Amino acid sequence: MQDREHPLVKWFGERRIVRLMLLAALLALGVIHIEFIINTVMLLWRVASPLMVGAVIAYILEIIIKRLEKIVFPGTKNRWLQKSRRGICILLSALLLLSLVALMIYTVIPGLVDAFTLLRKELPNYFNDVKEWLLSTFQNVPQVSDYLNELNLEWDSVQERIVNWAMNGVIDGELLSSTVTVIGAVSGGIANFFISFIFGLFLLAGKQTLTRQFHSVMNAAATERTNRRVMWVLTAANRCFSGFIVGQSVNGLVLGILTWLGMRIIGMPYALMVGVLSGTTSLIPIIGGYIGAVLGTFLVFTANPSMALWFLLFIVSLQTVQGNLLYPRLVGNSVGLPSLWVLAAVSVGGGLGGIGGMIVAVPITATVYALLQEWVQKKKSGGQEAVPAPTVSQPRQNKKARDV
Predict the structure, then answer these.
(1) Rounded to whole angstroms, how far apart are CA atoms 318 and 7?
(2) pLDDT > 70? residue 383
């Protein structure tokens, strides 16, 4: 007599088959309506992007706030100061960030306008000088001489094409066709930035409440083991991201100051603006220094072409010293990611998300690298799970309960 299959076993087996069939049906519907799904995701991303930017701003400000809290009334016993200390630090960090943005706008944009205006005036003279030099150099080569003599550019037409190329942009698939559209796009970007900034301040003000709510949801929805794993990943990610942001910021500040000082000593034009540009572009790993060098060379060339080569030699020497001495100490130790993986992260991140992808890819890769390192060490040692206990706020117990 054969043993019959238990009804529960049969029921669970049928449930598994049903779930697999439902998953296959969902995948088929996803493939059929892939265009609709992509459009929906892009729409949701555009709608939620100000909130995402606000969360990023809040995270950056929180790093500044933690350092300000060690300076602003650290050992005060005044209850009012203790309650208002975080609010004061939030306000100071917001003012500091807005001041940095204002400094960039005040120094970079007017300088770029002046540089392009000067280039527009002097470019025909530069072209004629280069043409005369080439004619004197290749005067014994009839083919080159004839070609150069016939070469005559209509600068009004060239300038008109450059202006049209600079003013034409793509927003929502449509070309900018009027000044009103340009102003509207800029105004929309400024409005989105302030919405993101205010949302970030609200996140900082309600940080403790949001943290308690997060832990409450995790305790209700997951087991203690899952909570430990989640906290393990979040702790590693916070360590890598905060270390990367602090290291890159200090590195950019040092590079900007050294660039400004060096250009002031040598007597080069646009010293402050090039220093701000070099410090800002150095936030982009690996290629940021090259971008700053190219922009700085262009700006110096527009004011004094003979100084451009000397500036290029200066900035390359400075970035070489800074990259070999300062960068490994400021960023390398805080991130803990080998150079090979930094290059791979920048390449992949740039291909997926442009400049923003380059910046975010390095700490993400560093987080994965750190988690894999801890996991491998745990497997080699054969010890317990290398995850920290979740920092979940527990209800307070009275003295009698603790004694028991």
Answers:
(1) 76
(2) no
